[in-house]
Amino acid sequence: MTLPITWADARQAVFEAGSAAAPGITPVPLVESDGLTLAEPLVTLTDLPAFPTSSVDGWAVRGDAPWRIVGRVLAGDHAIPLDSPGTCVEIATGGMVPPGTDAVIRIEESKVDGDTVLAGTARKTPDWRSRGEEAARGEELLPAGTPVTPGVIGLAASCGYDTLPCRPAPKAALLVFGDELLVAGPPGDGRVRDALGPSLPSWLRRAGTEVVHVRGPVADTLDDHIAALRSAVDAGAQVVCTTGGTMHGPVDHLHPALAALGARYVVNTVAVRPGFPMLVAKLPGGQFVAGLPGNPQSTFVALVSLVLPLLAGLTGRTLPAPGTVTLGADVPGRGDFTHLALVRMVDGRAHPVAHVGSSMLRGLASSFGFAVIPPGTQGRAGEQALVVPLPILDGERP
Predict the structure, then answer these.
(1) Which residue of 2, 95, 311, 312 shows the fewest CB atoms closer than 10 Å?
(2) At the topology level of CATH, where does 53-129 sit?
(3) CATH assignment of 26-47+133-167?
(4) Cβ atoms < 10 Å from Cβ of 121
(5) pLDDT tens per residue, range 299-339
(6) pTM passes above 0.70
């Protein structure tokens, strides 16, 4: 019998396996890079800003008033120097401040007569942005492993980048095992509705994968399991998630199928409840198989416990660290196992939810994530606890 590995050790093991198998660096056009991961630090290619720019509409002046107007600088213009005291140029917001400028006077705080600015007072805080005020050329702005967001894309563009060095999004597949599953209509007569085939691809996309293959239900035979795994690999999947068949019952064929394909285990069973018969194995071709239990809540415990750390490694990100919450109610422990308890946030505190049987999805649908209750302990109201959030898009959290 395989002894379960601790939850923390399991996360670390699959993360390291993913990191060792991370694909090479690819230059990706900025408009296609959202959701990927920086494979190299983001370093400025120029000073930011690259030249001094006016932050107001007004006058760039040299010397004391009055100032003779000798030109105009709009955004995008190259500014020639102000060589003579008593001269100025009209300048627009974003315009290049001419060399030799002593101050920028706001247009609404000046007095003009014909081609002369008669008077104006510069503010104590200069009304222009100095060259390199935001960053100096060659300065590291973001480290490798940073997720690429629209904000990162905008920053990179301002630095002069046309492409970003990224690791590609892992390609994922989903295989749903089980003769008992219905793919349409209400359950009954011994058959249950497949809730994972429709939902897990969306969770995998939110976790940063490109889902390239979904198949299910796969018949409960060894030959069908082997064929399904091969079809996922042939579709180009680097991570193949399966649901069900992770135990050793009469219709559990995942372990024999992995053995037939020459896979080796990275993790095989984890001391966590619910969902301990979870696994990650690696095929001879380098693809990973994440065996998730068939009971829905256990499936999602395995998703956050093993799949998310594996994907972090494959994309060059850091191992996702659990956050911290204050418990709003007691949460029981699970003896020698780590307990991942579904919680939702109410008035800034994490409260356990109802309907959290391993086969239930009602509690999951209204949850923020899983509170982590270590082995041999209980969570007490008012105490701090680690929390693993579900991979939900911004704005979707209950």
Answers:
(1) 2
(2) Molybdopterin biosynthesis moeA protein; domain 3 (2.170.190)
(3) 3.90.105.10
(4) 11
(5) 989 999 999 999 999 999 999 889 999 999 999 999 999 99
(6) yes
